[in-house]
TrEMBL record:
GO MF, any single term: acyltransferase activity, transferring groups other than amino-acyl groups
Gene3D superfamilies: 3.40.630.30
Residue ranges occupied by any N-acetyltransferase domain in the UniProt entry: 4-150
Top-level taxon: Bacteria
A Pfam entry, by short name: Acetyltransf_1
Protein name stated in the entry: GNAT family N-acetyltransferase
Organism phylogeny: Bacteria, Bacillati, Actinomycetota, Actinomycetes, Micrococcales
Transferase as UniProt keyword: yes
Keyword vocabulary terms for this entry: Acyltransferase, Transferase
Family matches, as InterPro entries: Acyl_CoA_acyltransferase, Bact_Acetyltransf, GNAT_dom
Amino acid sequence: MAEVRIRPAGADDALVVAALVLQCAIHRGGSGEPGFLDRYARAWLADQRHLPVWLAEVGEEHGGFLQARVVDPLPLPRNEIAPELVVEVFFVRPTHRGLGVGEDLLRAATTWARDGGFAAAVMSAGPHTRAMVERVGFTPDESAYRMELR
């Protein structure tokens, strides 16, 4: 079995992230469009600080990715403010499922958020991913799953 490595995506990975987003969209029934990779890469790079991405590498292949959004709340009187991490896109390529890639991606993202002082991580989960997100520590919270980080 190939080693699974999780790492944050950097600026040099913009086209890799775009290609994985496209693979995810196609897997979910969408289709590609001319110029998408460049358009996505430019948009992601323009706001990379608020759109962290983690890449899963399995051997020499990209096994999946997790893209989140940092939500910074506005200050309120007498309240400590801390950002939340909202998982927006989470995809493990079908050939790499069952290897722990998804759990590793979620753990990397939530560890980063916890270490960064975030208040919580939030995501929705379908029937095929609920057990996995619960193993990582998320709990059902109305229409989404939520993990308190402090």
